[in-house]
What does this fold into?
Amino acid sequence: MAKLPTFLPQALGGLVRNPATRRYPAQVREPYHGARGEIRNHEATCILCGLCARRCPTECIEVDKKGRLWAHDPFRCILCGVCVEACPTGSLTQTEARPGTLTARGRTELHPNPPEKKK
It folds into this structure.
């Protein structure tokens, strides 16, 4: 019974004050500067070298040079940005926006045509 007098003002104050948290997903916070978001690959500049796949700590990127395939599994990606730093052509970029909520497991597949070598 001794705790009731101290608890009652807090409980009643909670009914009157604004909530301390954001009502996610109805209110989404803007990403802060320098935030690490989703990975994007630009097909036109990708040379399918495979450096991004070799440097990725979670092995979420798959590169098949013969089959001309670049695949990214967003469920395994931890958004560390190591693949972006390793890309020699700057084909990989990382946005500041976090990936949206996914309802089904899938992966991003691109079939880039590597640029032809100059003779």
The first helix runs from residue 4 to 16.
